[in-house]
Structure formats: C-alpha cells, structure tokens
C-alpha cells in the first residue's frame, strides 16, 4: 500500500468530518491482531533460514564441489532475502512516509490529516497516538475559532470605536463603530493613522494625533457638541509593538446623567420647600386665629417660628446659589501657621505634626470654607473632639492636607457617592457640602479624596499644588 493510500485528508465541519469511514479510535480492522515488529522479523528470518538450508542440502546432494555449493547457497539466500525484505518493509515504509507527510501538515497548521492503521504492530501505536493528537488539536482549533467568532461579534457590536495600529502606524483592524465614526463607514484597514486623523474635524485632530488619554469635545456642523473619551494602550502582539485606540462618545451618557442630576436637584429643593412652606402656611392660618382672639403671646411665637423657617429656607437657597457660582480662586502665598490661626473660630481641632515652612499658594477665604465644612462634618459624625486633627506636609510638588476624625467612617457605597452633588445620608442634609469642597479644591487644580482609617474614622485628603 502506498503512503498516499494511508493518508486520509479530511475536511472537518462543525458537525464532524466530511469523509471518514471509521472513527479515529478504530481505524485498525476489527479482525487484525497486534503483531510486534520483532515477531514478524523473527518469522521472516526463520523462513529465510529454512529455505536457505533446504537449498544448500539439495545442492550438496548433487555432488557439487563444496565451494561451489556454498557459493550457490549464499547467492540463493541473498536472492530470496531481497524480495522477502521488500515484502516485509513495504507496509512499514508506507506508514512511516504517511506519518512524515502528516507531521509536515501539522507544521503547516493543517489538522485535517489522518493516517490509517494497517500493520497491527508498534507503528500502529504511533499512528493511533498521532490520530489522537490530531483530533485534540482539531477540537481545540474549533473551540478557538468559536471563541474568536464570539469575540469578533462582541467587538463589532460594541458602540466603542476600536482601532488597532501596527508598528508602522498602519490600521490593521477597525470595528464597525470605528469605521462609522472615523471613516464614514468605509474600510480603514491598510490606511495610515495620520491619514485617518487628517479626515477628522480640526478640533479632534490634536487629540487623536497625540499618544495620551483624555476627554475632548467637538462641535459638529449641525451645531451640536459631542464629548468623546479617548483611551490608548500600547502592547505587544506576535512579538511586535501595537497600539489599541478606543474612542467612546459620551454625549448621550452625559446628557442622561445631567437629566438625572437635575431630577435629583428638583426633588431635594421640592422636599426642602415643602418642609418650610407647609409649616409657614399652617402657622399663618393659626396666627390669624390668635390675632382674632387677641392672644398676643401665642401670635408672637407663631410669627417667630415663621421667621425661623423663612431664614432656614433663605439659607438653603443661598447654599445652592453659592455652589453654582464658585468664584475663581485669588491665589496668594499664605504661611500655613497664619492659615491655621485663621481657623480659630472653626469647630475644635488640633494640628497633628509640624507645619511646612514653605508657604502655600491658595485662596485663603475659599480654603477656610473647605476646612470649616470638613471640621463640622467630623464633629457631626460623632468623633471625640480631641481626635479631630489637621495635618499638612510638603510633598515637593505641592502640599498634602489631611482632616481626620475617629467617627464611624463611611460604608463602601457611601464613599463612592459622598462627593456626588446633592447626595447625603443626613436626614436634613442638602448634599452639597463635600461636593462644594471638591469644587473649590479642583478650582485650585488640586484633588480631594475620602478614605476610612484603620481603627475607625474618616480621612479627607486634599492635594494642593505648590
């Protein structure tokens, strides 16, 4: 049997091979018993020995000279051994050639080559092992192809524009959103990224041409302004550097968040107005009765209560107004000891550690407003007044200010929402205190963060540029 007859080229589909008569585990004929190569070789040698012996015995019976009989016997044995050896090695050679061809196919990534068993010997064990490996590799490739198909479907369906660049800055992949957003639906693969950037609006080009992440907005020809989030990541693919660019349009999401925030503002204001207007209306009606009956004392108490509720409502509206019109900080050099002395009228606190010798650069009035608000929150959290501290240290590029207490701290959910405007866990809280503090700090190009302390309590950390 030739090696071509032993190699079965199978074209597999998802539901199995297209052409195969037997399962790869049972390619050996059912009636074929396993015979070792050693046994088959011993049988061949035995046949050769017996045949050669009979030939020599016959020649010696012809009374030929011994040398001639020996020569003829050896020559006859050799002539007999050649076809026997060819007959014995032909199947073995064919299967080994088939295995060589099949293994070469594996090197080319072709897992659709199967080798048929035929000798029932040790070579068949190698054939069976090879067929098992091929089936495992084929199954793994099918699973990998299915995962790649699923991943490609997800990537093509995502609204985030994705573009992959090779080391030459050429586009090697772009999903549907990327083609639509950056190429008006046309194919981007093969184009240089510089060319793709040149197709975009003038406002977007500097951001897309840079290698940094960020938010930017673009005014469309229709007059609408769209906000985009640009994210870029460098990584190695097939041992070569590539860059993945993600571009997400945030306009709709920001609009939804803006609407949700306004709804929350309206609910908070409506609640506060009801809490003040309802008692005022009730007391005004009661005051009329007191005036008609001449009960001057109770009338005055009712009027005083109305005055208090009106002041509270005016203060509430003023706090919202101040949140909406934070002034631009008037930055000046202020020594930290002078700033701390200016907090004498604030809720009790103590300074933890030494203050920096280098003056800070901030708006003293605005920063005092931040510190008073944070100190007030620390006391309202139930902390021991002696455990409310302020520390400040020079970090070289700025100053790190911390306000710490030993209250109950915040839950994980509250920590994530505490800086969101109008979010409050207090029964009568407006939800603008911490968000106002953050707005003031960020107006100084600084940062504000919250974290729980080991052993209980809250740490508010402010970073102010130096």
Q: Care to give the gist of this entry?
A:
The protein has 13 helices and 16 strands.
Structural features, described:
The chain is an alpha+beta fold and 466 residues long. The chain has 13 helices and 16 strands. The chain has helices at residues 3-6, 37-61, 66-107, 122-157, 176-183, 193-198, 205-209, 251-293, 296-324, 336-341, 364-380, 412-417, 433-443, and strands spanning 7-9, 12-13, 16-17, 113-115, 161-165, 171-174, 214-219, 225-237, 240-249, 332-334, 350-351, 360-362, 389-394, 398-404, 447-452, 458-465. The strands form five sheets. It has a five-stranded antiparallel sheet. A five-stranded mixed sheet has the order 11-13-14-16-15. Helix 8 (251-293) runs antiparallel to helix 9 (296-324). The relative contact order is 0.05. Mean pLDDT is 75; it is low at 1-33.
The overall pLDDT average reads 75
**β content, as a range?**
15-25%
Q: Got a strand count?
A: 16
Coarse structural class:
alpha+beta
With strands numbered from the N-terminus, the spatial order across the biggest sheet is 6-5-9-8-7
Number of helices: 13
Please describe the biggest sheet, giving its number of strands, its sense, and whether it closes into a barrel.
5 strands, antiparallel
Coarse morphology:
elongated
Enumerate the spans where pLDDT stays under 50 for 5 or more consecutive residues. 1-33
Helix content: 40-55%
Rg, nearest Å: 44 Å
Would you list the SSEs in sequence order as H and E? Answer: HEEEHHEHEEHHHEEEHHEHEEHEEHHEE
Question: Termini, distance in Å?
Answer: 87 Å
